Amino acid sequence: MKLRLVALSFSCLVIGSLAGCSSAPEVKTLAYAQLRNEQTFETDFPAAWKAIESALRLTRVVSKTPAEVSPLELKKLSQRNLETDWIFSKSKSKYIEYQVNGFPRKTYLQNRFKYQVSAEQVLGGVKVKTTVTEEVERLNAQGGSEGFSTTGEPDPSLANDLIEKISRELNSAPAI
Predict the structure, then answer these.
(1) Is residue 2 part of a domain?
(2) Each residue of 45-63: pLDDT tens digit?
């Protein structure tokens, strides 16, 4: 009876320690100032949409709503959305900390993200809003990959960078 109780206690201890602690290091995030993820551009809808497509020209777009639009129909639209495929990159804000021979090290993690962009005709221009879905690669204790997972809020600089890129595209567009 006493041996059975000891074995049961030991198995509960082992199972509890395995379930409660993962071998993956904790993912940390750099703090950013408040960055914007939307802007109203003082332009017409077709020019704003061309700037959005131009800013994302090197990225695979997986869906647009509405899907196919002629140049004449684009002038009549008041709202349009798109979503990109996953973009793989090294994170600028998500990292893990560890020690080698007693000295601290920091490694920024691989990430993947996708944009959801919506453009809506409003009084005074076109309001463009970007939303980012971000996943970070999980590493095990040996440094091997355990796949991707969502960790808290996405990096706010990703949406801000796209807004800035759209703004540059609009400013560099030839005048008609």
Answers:
(1) no
(2) 999 999 999 999 999 999 9
Domain annotation covers residue 7:
no
- Reported in sequence order, the residue ranges of 12-60 that DSSP labels E, i.e. its strands, are 28-29, 38-41
Give, in degrees to the nearest 5, the angle at Cα 160 between 169 and 33.
145
What are the tokens at 125? 């221009």
Whole domain around residue 65: which residue ranges? 25-172
Residue 43 lies in a domain: yes
Using DSSP, state whether 21 is helix, strand or coil. coil
Q: What is the pTM of this model?
A: 0.77
What sign has the CA pseudo-torsion 144, 147, 153, 157? positive
Of 148, 28, 169, which is closest to residue 87 (Cα–Cα)? 148
Domains of the chain: total? 1
Q: Is the dihedral of CA 78, 35, 57, 133 positive or negative?
A: negative
Does residue 9 lie in a domain region? no
